[in-house]
Amino acid sequence: MRAAYDEIADWYEHEFLPRTEGDPLGLNRVLTELLGRGDGTCLEIGCGTGVHAAALRGLGWSPVGVDLSAGMLRHARVRLPVALGDAGRLPIRDGCLPAVVALMVHTDMPGYPDVLREAARVLRPGGRLVHVGVHPCFCGGFADRADPAAVVVRPGYLDGHWTKQSWTDQGIRDKVGASHWPLAELLGAFLEAGLVLDGFAEGTGPTPTVLGVRARKP
Q: What domains can you pick out in the chain, each with its CATH number?
């Protein structure tokens, strides 16, 4: 499979990431609230350039990453141990991990329900999965976030489609596209994977950009 992020990996590392310093979306707060402190290996699915590794280590975890994009992994290797792989077919044995995280990646994965099933497979009983992604109610091709204090939500939320439509040309969606999962479909995918939902959190701002979900393997 050819990874869309290969073509923008250097732009992502050197231009996009510096604009996100300081946790403007509240992602790290949501991650801390839902994942919490722990030890042992924490797998990051779709780790990209590995920018979240420091936050995971700060919570006591030992992060490892899997990503489909060799271009992104060129930058990630200096931040955490990584493997080139498909999130829908993880190169990891059953029931061995205490924690898995998926951070701002579910819209990049058209087969996200399969990814959740894989995450459930590799988690040990009682292990936790933390998903933090763009908020399905307020982010997508249907949402104009040019004014963060007054987000305009147009028709299209229930369509559940892939699009490159975006309110800005400074982000990622207009470059690689994104899949949209309405809230009910997204949460239903966790249940279909056999996971138990046990925690939620939202990002900062008058209209949150991120939604966090914690689930556990029975």
A: 4-136+182-216 (3.40.50.150)
